[in-house]
Each structure stands twice: as structure tokens, then as C-alpha cells.
């Protein structure tokens, strides 16, 4: 069942998912986070990591994000909250290699990431708020893995669903994924029909009139 949901999710872009989220009153898309390494849409289940400034108080030598990679499954996406304000990478090259070897779909960092050229050479998708050369060592550390994180203004839980592409990032709560997919597929089908009409010569003003503007209304959602 989960794989079927993921297959359906992977066929939809972030804009369509965002429109469906708007229609259902779910948190809006997160903007300002973009692909850094390879231009590839990613879709999957979330594995969360939370980072904090400073060094581990107990002297732990476990590197940030390693536990998330080890517990994630193929197709999962690591989501890292690095909102410390410290210019230090919440993700790097060895992590990209490890994640790729385990079959992860990509990583999304609310904050900086580094070793972007290495990730690009690997073909591993890194989405982040920004990039930096500065190491995490001595600057930031992991305080939680598997706990809720905040990306943009959205609270994201471990196991939620996410789609990211060049337009933005959209998170979907687990409990609402089937409802959202049904709405997104209706929207996608209607937009595809409108695109076909435009390419067939129908005036764009006519196509993008009431049919488009009212697409997300309750009346249109029920059809």
C-alpha cells in the first residue's frame, strides 16, 4: 500500500501537490529551498534530523545525520533542520555517498549544505536553503533524530511524505496522504486538459477563465 502511494506521489510535481494542499487546507509549500546538486524531482517518506549550535555536551563522536541514514529505507528522504544561525553545513559529501549506497532518494536541508560538486558527480539530489564550505565540526551537532522538525513554517514529522522539485518543497502529513493524492490527481488531469486545449488553439484567456480560477473551490473539488 505504501509503495502504491509513493508511486502515485512520484508522478506529481510540487506545484500540483501544493495546489491540492491549498484545496484541503493543509500547510502551504515551502519556498526558498532548491536543488543544489542535480536537477531531479524527489518524492518519498521523511526521516528527520534536528541540529543545534555548539558541541555535544556528552562528548559524543557520532556525526550528525548518520543515525538517520542508517535507519532510513530505500526511497526515503532525510530532512535536516539546521536553523541555528551558524554558518555550518548540515549535510556533506560522505553523507551523500552513504545515503546513495542505502538507496535514499535525496536530502532536504533547512539551512546550508556542502560538498555540492561531489553530490552532483554522484547524481545524488541535495536540496537546501543555501550552501557553504564550513564544516559542522565544532560548530553544530545533532540533538535529535526521528523527532518533529520545522522547515519554513511547516512542522514535519518523521514518516510524513514530501515532494521537492525546482518550484519548491511540499510536505504532506501521513494521515492526509490518500486524500491529498486524490485531490492532486484530479487537479493534474484538469490542468493537462487545459494545456491540451491551449495547444490545440483555444484562446488562453478562455481556457484560464472560470475553469482555472475556481479549480480549488469546494464546488470544483467535489466534481
UniProtKB/TrEMBL annotation:
Please tell me the species this chain comes from: Rhizorhabdus histidinilytica
Molecular function GO terms recorded: metal ion binding
The molecule here is called Putative 4-hydroxy-4-methyl-2-oxoglutarate aldolase
Binding of substrate occurs at 92-95, 114
The taxonomy runs: Bacteria, Pseudomonadati, Pseudomonadota, Alphaproteobacteria, Sphingomonadales
Q: Which InterPro entries match?
A: RraA/RraA-like, RraA/RraA-like_sf
Entry keyword set: Magnesium, Metal-binding
Question: Where is Mg(2+) bound in this sequence?
Answer: 115
- Tell whether Metal-binding is among the UniProt keywords: yes
Hey, what's the signal peptide range on this chain? none
Cofactor dependency:
a divalent metal cation; Mg(2+)
Gene3D superfamilies in the cross-refs:
Ribonuclease E inhibitor RraA/RraA-like
Note the CDD domains from the entry.
RraA_family
Cite the Pfam families for this sequence.
RraA-like
Amino acid at each position: 500500500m505504501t509503495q502504491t502511494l509513493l508511486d502515485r506521489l512520484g508522478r506529481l510535481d510540487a506545484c500540483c501537490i501544493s495546489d491540492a494542499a491549498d484545496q484541503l487546507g493543509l500547510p502551504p509549500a515551502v519556498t526558498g529551498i532548491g536543488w543544489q546538486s542535480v536537477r531531479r524531482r524527489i518524492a518519498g517518506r521523511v526521516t528527520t534530523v534536528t541540529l543545534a549550535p555548539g558541541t555535544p555536551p556528552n562528548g559524543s563522536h557520532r556525526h550528525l545525520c548518520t543515525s538517520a541514514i542508517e535507519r532510513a529505507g530505500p526511497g526515503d528522504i532525510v530532512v535536516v533542520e539546521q536553523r541555528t544561525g551558524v554558518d555550518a553545513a548540515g549535510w556533506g559529501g560522505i553523507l551523500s555517498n552513504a545515503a546513495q549506497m542505502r538507496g535514499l532518494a535525496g536530502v532536504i536541508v533547512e539551512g546550508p549544505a556542502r560538498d555540492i560538486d561531489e553530490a552532483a558527480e554522484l547524481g545524488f539530489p541535495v536540496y537546501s536553503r543555501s550552501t557553504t564550505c564550513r564544516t559542522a565540526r565544532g560548530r553544530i551537532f545533532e540533538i535529535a533524530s526521528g523527532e518533529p522538525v520545522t522547515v519554513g513554517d511547516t512542522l514535519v514529522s518523521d514518516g510524513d511524505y514530501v515532494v521537492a522539485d525546482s518550484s519548491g518543497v511540499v510536505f504532506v502529513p501521513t494521515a492526509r496522504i490518500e486524500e491529498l493524492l486524490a485531490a492532486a490527481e484530479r487537479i493534474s488531469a484538469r490542468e493537462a486538459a487545459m494545456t491540451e486545449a491551449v495547444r490545440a488553439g483555444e484562446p488562453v484567456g478562455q481556457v484560464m477563465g472560470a475553469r482555472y480560477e475556481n479549480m480549488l473551490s469546494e464546488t470544483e473539488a467535489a466534481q
